[in-house]
Amino acid sequence: MSKSVFQVNLSGILKILSDSMYSSKNVFIRELIQNAVDAIKFRELQDQFTPHILVEFYQNEQDKGLIFSDNGIGLTYDEVNEFLSKIGASSKSNLLENRKDFIGQFGIGLLSCFMVSDEIVVLSKSFKSQEAVKWTGYIDGTYHTEYNETQSEIGTKIILKLRPDFEFNFEILNDLLLLYGEFVGYKIHVEYNGKSKKAIGSPMAWNEKDNDKIQFFGNQFFGETFTNYFHLKTKDGKNSGIAYILPKPVHHGSQQQNRVYIKNMFITDEAKNILPEWAFFVRLLLNSESLSPTASREEIYSNDELESLKNELEIAIKNYLIDLSNSNPIALKNIINNHNVAFKSLCLKDISFLKFVFKWFTFETNFGNLTLEEIKQMKKDVLFIDSIDGFRQLVPIAIASEVMLINSGYIYDTEVLHKISEFDFQNQYQEITVEFFGNILNDLSVEEFNTYETKVENLKYNLKEFKCFVELKKFKPISIPALFYMDNDQILGKDLNNIKEDSDDFWASISESVYSTDTFQSKLFLNLENPIVSKLLTTNNNDTEKIILEMLYINALMMGHYPVSAKELQMMNNNILNIINKI
Fold this sequence. Notes:
alpha+beta; Heat Shock Protein 90; Ribosomal Protein S5, domain 2; Rossmann fold; 5-stranded mixed sheet; elongated
């Protein structure tokens, strides 16, 4: 049986590169920089020399082109044929078994140049050979190789004539050289139409110690003015960077945007999977020697090294905050206030960290936004309600009763307070409902109870069709005539009952099969101190009594932000019309 060789369509491969693998054709600049850097590193392992990278850009009315030159290891005649003419071959993997210091693939990287040019010329002289070589590749998939007697210096030169329809100029080139080449560790010299321009290259940003420069990089990369940041380094020394703490609150669902370099080469400024989910208030500038890029070198490859790094970064952030509690507790308090949600999310997974920070957590109360430490000092009992609407309904009553109430209806608050109650025994923590407040409202005196007992029984009958129980209490402020309560299960029952009333028999039967609509029972607490309620209790007109009670019922529903059914709306409209007709 004979064997056949796969036929590769170069234009098809290029389409895959441009449409699927690379986000932009401009990445060819990164590939050329990486090739130059890797070639220099190879040579440094075997020789002492002064590294040099030169990028020449020429442009006139007819043409524009690029020449990338380096004095790295170079390629021999055989290596050129092996690595430049075979798609997927890598000079780096074959020339050096241990290639952990290199992230480029010369063959694949050079292939990316065909996205912007129809012809690639490579001139190279190897450190191991006295002969130079010239390789020319064409967009139709052909190439030819020849010796080059004109080149005497060791290194490689890549010549590209850019396509006329490819939008590219010196400003774009310079921006790309800064993006990909600023921190590669070697100066990149630049010429534009034969004139020298400012060389590209800076000390590694992640190793910077000067406060002004650190803040400059933070503003440049993340668009913020940072006041809190810290350096980090993993135990093996392979990862180092700067973690910036965002100075203002961000939504807990905000996507992470971290800037990652691998072996000094820019990979992405949108790394979303390198920090734990709760750390969305951190912006990370990182250079890694252990992470691996994906094939496009625009994302981070997910593997054990990434998970290990993520764990170390999580520990580093926690340790920074713990250290800050001793060195600058005011700064820590501000950070926690700004990023309350993130810290609460973290603490649900890490009880030891919760014990460290819980006193700094801020909660909304009926006395304003307070830290838990301030709440603990003011009240022995820490009461919290897991309903924003319920909290708002109870605020005036809680204030008048001098009861401290926490609104734990925001994300994580209820869970965090329950966790705190498991170890903080200095205070009593209790989750309550609106019904709880109904139970602690002032009861009637024996005389008052006897006076209004019959009347209240009649009032209960008026709201029987709405499955609402009426109870008479006394509470402050007297401006609130009634307080309504219905728990979540009861609300569900009411909603399904509304569906049953508004639907045909088919949908009504479905709602009944899901939930029994006869189970919900709500409560209406009437305030004897309120003048409207007093009028209600003393009227002898049944029609007036019914109108007042039903209007108090609807008012209490709306104050508590409870759902109002079509029947209840119709009742309210009818009562308003009755009142208008009597005017």
